[in-house]
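Q: Structure tokens for this one, please.
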Amino acid sequence: MMLALHLTMTGPVDRAAAVTAEHQPRPIRIEARLFDKDMSEAGRLDAIIRPDGWTVSAAERANRCGVRPVAWLPLLKDWNEAASHLVAFDIPETDWAVRVCRSISRGAPEWMREMQIAHDVAQDSRELLGREPGGITLAEATTSLLGAPVPGLEGVLALYQHESVQQLRRAAA
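A: Here is the predicted structure, written as tokens:
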């Protein structure tokens, strides 16, 4: 099984500071899809996250219909345990963002597994475009490789399925 994940945060995470630091960005939206071995969708999560002690630009909507991080973290953990592959844009950033969310939720379960096969489409995009590590956004990668910016999980999945990325992965195997 494969888990595809994208977290939208209020800004980039600060890996030099503790995950509990006040200035760490906060989650705005989570998008996740679980695919079975035949790449048929087995589950989908797309939720606006309710602010809990912080503000976001769309706070009224988020306060009205958003979910708390504690609501989706256990589902993410279950899907992650079922998946042998993880696809995300900038996996270290995604991992740190989930850790920030866990700290907000005061002890939510761990989520990353060491034995998982990780597909970091940010790393693939940087390699294909000849960019330095850490120097590309999802919008830049999708614009350069797909011809237009594709936001969120749709952009992550489009990059993962892009022929150049697949050729790069085959060559590395």
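A few notes: The mean pLDDT is 83. The two ends are 19 Å apart (CA to CA).
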